[in-house]
Amino acid sequence: MNGTFLNIPLSAVPSWALDISPPPAPVPWTPDLMSTFRGGWRPDDLTGLSAGAAIATLPSFGGVVTNTLTQATGSLQPVIGTINGKKTALFDGTDDYMLASDLTVANAATSLFFWVLVQFVAYPADSQYKFITFDEGTSTGRRFGILLGNTTTAKKIGITYRIPDTGSTTVRLSTTAIAIGTPQLICAEMIVGGTGAPRTRLWLNGTVILDEVPGVSTAPALVNPVFDATNATKSTMGGSYSGTTAQSNAHFILMGRNRGAVSDTDRQKLEGYACWYAGIQAQLPAGHPYLSAAPVLP
Predict the structure, then answer these.
(1) What's the pTM?
(2) What stretches in the chain show pLDDT beneath 70?
């Protein structure tokens, strides 16, 4: 060794003292770190499929390990698309949908939180359509989901629910229309028990667009008594199983569900993770904690 280190000949300096390797990179925060997480879906994980290939199964990451999305009928399967370098599940808007295998997500739940990173190709002709739902599947059953509704020219983001006090399906729309051709992160929450119940909230790219007390007389339960196959339960992604007029013509980039309350801190981490994942972090509002960098572990 030639030269000096702190005025000491390098030949006399132990090798460990010369180790100036950079510190390890921070570990990214991911949605499966939320305690209430029940599974999410990333079509980009389907490494064995190329653009245009049909998607029969989409395994979940984190949460409930068996929470795979499935569609056995070939004509109803979405296909692999691409948005900002990420694989997507592209639904045709005619009859495509997928079913989630975890039908117990709403059992005895005091709160449900669904979220989806989606880019719409076109508005449907139908006045309303759902794109992520949990239905008991009976005329008097329970229901919760995110939908678009109102007009045929500018669909507004909303929540649909049916719970014991209402007696019928309720749709609550925000005043915000979904953009076409741009990835959008939508988070929806319904609190049906415990602190702050009842309450419904919607966020678009980290900005709240709906926050209200639903029209019920008491904090209701979503269960009657449970959501399971014996109650003809369906939990869908990409559209509604009940008909072909409620389907999405959209790229699903990232989506997931939580059973139980999601703190504002975790919601903001989720928003940061998802928006940076899709390269749309600039759509987060000013002052958002993850506008400048994606969330990482402390």
Answers:
(1) 0.86
(2) 1-8, 10-21, 65, 108, 124-131, 134-143, 148-154, 162-168, 215-233, 240-246
Look at residues 210, 202, 170 and name the one whose alpha carbon lies nearest to residue 186: 202
Q: Per the structure block, which two tokens stand in for 79?
A: 């296909």
Which residue from 195, 237, 190, 247 is spatially nearest to 213, judged by alpha carbons?
Answer: 190
Please give the C-alpha separations between residue 91 and each of 72, 94, 96, 120, 251, in angstroms, as whole numbers: 15, 8, 6, 10, 7
Distance between CA atoms of residues 181 and 123, nearest Å: 11
What residue ranges do the domains of the chain occupy?
Answer: 38-280
Written as one letter, the residue type at 258 is: N
CATH architecture assigned to 38-280: Sandwich (2.60)
